[in-house]
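Subgroup meeting minutes
Present: P.N., E.W., G.H.
Scribe: E.W.

1. P.N. recapped why we're keeping a running log of single-chain structure predictions: easier to compare across weeks, and new members can see raw inputs and outputs side by side.
2. G.H. added today's entry (467 aa).
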Amino acid sequence: MTKIDEILREALKMYKPTPSEEEILKRVSEKIVREAILESSRYEGILDVTLEGSAAKETWVRGREEVDIFIHFDPTVALETLEKTVIELGFKVLRKLDGNPRLMYADHPYVEGRLGNVIVNIVACYKVNPPNWISATDRTPYHTKYVKEKLDQNARDEVRLLKAFMMCCGVYGAEIKMRGFSGYLAELLIINYGGFMETLREASNWIPPVVIDIEKHYKSKEEVLDVFGERHLIVVDPVDRMRNVASAVSEEKFSEFILASKLFSRSPSISFFKPREEIISKTSTIRGNGERCIVIVYFKLSSIKPPDVLWGELKKTENGLKKYLESSGFTVYRSDSWTDEENICLIAFELPSLTLPYVKIHQGPPVHNPNVLQFIDKWIKNEDRIAGPWISGTRLYILRRNNIRNVVEIIRKGLSENRVAVSKGLAEDLRKAEIYTSIEEVGNTRARKFLELFLDGRPAFLDRYEG
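Output recorded in log:
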């Protein structure tokens, strides 16, 4: 047995459910389906209730126990009625089972709850034949059927290895928070390449644009690119030739998976299959901690939001703050954001300095511009003018004073005067934000762990690489 075989056998022991765990999830699934069928009988327009997702396909990974219950509606039911009904039904079913339901959003609303350690999703779809899709979830039952037909037991274990590898390397999950590889996409990669190591070897040599068309819906790569455009990764959905299964995968996560595949192929280690918390303590010493400049916008949420909504708002706000800092004269090395999805959010930036220089250059119009004299009139006697105007090329320039130089003051002023393009849903909470310039000022343990990883700067899988 080779070293890689030993590693993969050990990894499979870690992530493959035991027969008793399989039986527990099966019983939970059957219980929820029974309750959903019973509750569905009280509504018109519901045609079927089915188990979908990784539990149905037997590709779920230990520690990620999840049950997806799909409520199939007649195509004649209005979308508004469908959404209202599945929310009402989902809350009733999960409350009856003490599942603590909450409203979630993807392409349309669904209900999530938890029974013990099992996450339960109750989702609506229309019962239609391809390609007559009405909503995005209509394809899911066909995805389940396709994968079950294509994967035998050995292949399902290969999927589990790939999912576990992606999880530990920080590239798994298609939600806004991650923008990585979905479970269905991982299954299709195994179907296409034949196994875990085959997938990693191929991914190690990916050069964008990568096109995978398992069912040969198109005659050539060029035809696929004509339909989907120049994307870094296109995986044509076997059940829908007009859908790219990899559309959610960001260029960053695509690149991280390529590099993680290269590193594991060169230096295989069981460390690639261990949660980052078990690795980071061995490798993480924040370099230059006393000399680096970090600013943290830390705020509390006034209301709980569905995670995808919250992460979308948070990323939009991070981008708005980054642009505001840059327009104010700061260079932003890196930025990232984090939330516990309940109470706390933070946005972190690393800068070369926490203060701006005493002066900054201010560009005026070209001398042939009709407004050139207005520029001179505005600045020639202005107290903030330090030098100029002078001409460089065809334009006027001055040096002007930076009246507010401290990054904390600049951010506070920008937020209070609505100068920052933030999400409306977070605007009020941001006005009450604390702004820190040191990790030590942050009291929340989980937030501090995120900030330590942010300063460490490495993707998750680089903690595992042993060289």
